[in-house]
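FAQ: What does the model actually see?

It sees only this:
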Amino acid sequence: MSGMQYSGWQSPRYRNRTAISQGDIQERALLEATRRLLQQKLPSQLTVGSIASEAGLARSTVYFYFDSKESILSATIESVVGPMMDEHEQLLTDNGFTAAFPAILRLLFATWKTHSGILSGVMEFVASHPDYRRVWRGYMERSVALQVAALERDRQRGLPVGSGDLEAELLAFCWMAERCCYMLFSRDHDLEEERHLFEVLFGMVSRITGTRLSDSSSNVWSGENGHTAEA
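And it is asked to produce this:
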């Protein structure tokens, strides 16, 4: 698809390759090791040595692919956040806001459920690295810009859309949703808590945007029984 390339997490010190090599077993092993460790530890608790050990590689091997711990972390985050943002953009482009939002909210919850350690680690990472804080804010602003553009297309098609400051309100909503998901998925919780948060967020967006979302929240919810957070 054409559109924004979500590669902002890539550290300036990361070796100059346009994408992570999918055919390189050792590089993939390092990223998978970092994912596993982030399910148990915060980014500040990881070291190049611990990542290498988890991957079953020598510490010196790490520096063939990455020149710092931050480079490994940024590539690991990008491997999760990038595809999520790409799918988010495609859903809005193909369907418009009103039709796409239920799937977008499901995508958000599914990503948090699967990658709670990585996304929880993002919260610490952006707090201690101003460059990546700007990247994360850019993700949020890009997401909102796509949503506002999709809402305008819906309006032009004759669908009901509110007339307030949608950009500012949706940006505030995105930051709030991020914090709510972090507080839920970074601890043990039950399915009912997930359902409740999903329904609250779903209703808030409907009120903020003035849209008549095509499905009720109970119809679009797709949680899995017995899920608890992994980290």
